Amino acid sequence: MSTSSSTGTSISGIPRFTGDAAPYPGGDPYADYRGADFPFATLPDLADRRLGGAVLAASDEFFAERENLLLPGPARFDPERFGHKGKVMDGWETRRRRGGSAGDPCPADHEHDWALIRLGVPGVVHGIVVDTAHFRGNHPQAVAVEGTELPGTPSPAELLAPGTRWTALVPRTPVGGHAANGFAVRDRQRWTHLRLSQFPDGGIARLRVYGRPVPDPDWLAALGTFDLAALENGGMVEDASDRFYSSPLNTIRPGGSRRMDEGWETRRRRDKGHDWVRYRLAGRSVPRAVEIDTSEYKGNSAGWVALFALDAGGGGADPAEGAEGWTELLPRTALQPDTVHRFVLPGDRTATHLRMEIHPDGGIARLRVHGSLAGE
């Protein structure tokens, strides 16, 4: 018996996987996984559970719970694990849909399962990955993703109400089993919630929603002083010198770091240089104090740190590394391992970007930049 396993390339250049994957052959379950490097995957996952993302409701979750969709990390597969409902899968899996009669045993073309997702941080979506890892012959035939923007914390009933306007971000598109099915999103509107549909049924391991956070500006104004660099407040990592062990995005995630891989750690430098990260702050703002946290980095924390600010709000200033216009906020200062360091910044300098330099290399768990938006 043979299985269909094909790969095509869309107009956007992103691979498209279709058909079933081969049955599990034993050994490493990811050995025949169909993946790709997506250009938008360096952006934060706006649906990340660690940012507050949630699956609010689903039409069915008979075989595997909807909450698995947003778990961090790749899906796991244990070939020996079965429960009273069947094979235990690390993903969202619905029961098999059926038609209405013996003469019409297959579901109608429009019948499908769905899940409602609240983004952890509202924002502009640049790309979506519907990951069917380990769903080899039980994945959906096609998927679709829609977005909506609603204020506050709407209930599933409000999201499903007839008056709610949904916009197609990913049209109904065939997908492949045991594959990272990636889609570029061209619509540059702000979204708060997504609706993921799978036709007609099946299993999806993970959903990743890559984009740029756009929080509610009225909320930030009401806060007054807040963390200008935090992902949930609209901060972003624009560039970094090194991502060898872990992503610099980790430095602006919510909460503290519990392990080394939850921060940013660079490889050991053997030259005379240094590593750095460039951040875009939530808006044109006035940074007043910073926290630099080296928690869990005990023999590999950064040795010294320096901070620089750039105000590119008026145009003309280039935030690129080494460009003119950067001014020193914090001179090169020694850091201690496994410690939260707090520094009050001098003056009322406005900034749109911040650059953190670490000398010569090492790990930083978190960066917090406390301040307020500029008057305009």
Automatic annotation (TrEMBL):
| InterPro entries membership | Allantoicase, Allantoicase_dom, Galactose-bd-like_sf
Taken from the record, one Pfam family name reads: Allantoicase
Region spans: Disordered: 1-23
Describe the location of the Allantoicase domain by residue ranges.
52-213, 234-372
Q: What class of enzyme is it?
A: hydrolase
Pathway per the UniProt entry: Nitrogen metabolism; (S)-allantoin degradation; (S)-ureidoglycolate from allantoate (aminidohydrolase route): step 1/1
- Catalytic function, reaction form: allantoate + H2O = (S)-ureidoglycolate + urea
Biased amino acid composition, Low complexity: 1-14
**Does the keyword field hold Hydrolase?**
yes
Write the Enzyme Commission number(s) for this entry: 3.5.3.4
Record's superkingdom? Bacteria
| Database matches in PANTHER family | ALLANTOICASE, INACTIVE ALLANTOICASE-RELATED
Q: Which family does it belong to?
A: Belongs to the allantoicase family.
Which NCBIfam families would you find in this protein's record?
A: allantoicase (TIGR02961)
The name under which this protein is listed is Probable allantoicase
Q: Which organism is it from?
A: Streptomyces orinoci (Streptoverticillium orinoci)
Give the gene name.
Answer: alc
